[in-house]
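Check the record.
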Amino acid sequence: MHSCTRATDIADPDPLRRQAMALLPLLAATALLAGCGSSPRTGSRQARRPAPAPTGGQLRTRYPQLAASRPVLLDPRLREAAVASALMTVNTPYRYGGNTPEGGFDCSGLVQYVFNSIGGQRLPRSTRQWAEGSTPLELSRLQRGDLLFFNTSGASFSHMGIHIGNHQFVHAPSTGGTVRTDSLYNRYFAPRFDGARSVFQRA
């Protein structure tokens, strides 16, 4: 309910592994993978205009739309503190269900830890709860500290990370890995993009 992918559905897009990665959707049903959180109900799908891709994979432009039913509204002056806190977690080991630097992180546990460290309020835990607690936004309005969501297990909003600028995000990827940064236009993540969302109040 509250953890990211347990196995290899978030793998480094090494050219030698592309063929194996192409089989991931077929393996998802049998590999006992668990998403960061249960999939939210999705409404109609509509096209979004992405920011220009500098390099890498083709960004997915049609993805689930979900209104914020329980919005988290943080002070936008806390954006840089969130980014700094996220960067401090890089290289922390991944742990299914983890939400502390000492015990490790899964993807939604990492996000909860980062925003707890700056916000001091009760925050969501699962990726579904984060999706429901954040406001969708166009990539043209993406700022540091906003959230990026992905479908990495066959379920919408099953993975997430924190945008740190220049289309890079911090996230806890998978069992055996560590918290790291990746590009939104990474060949693995770009086609699995589920949209950008924010927990910060708009000016």
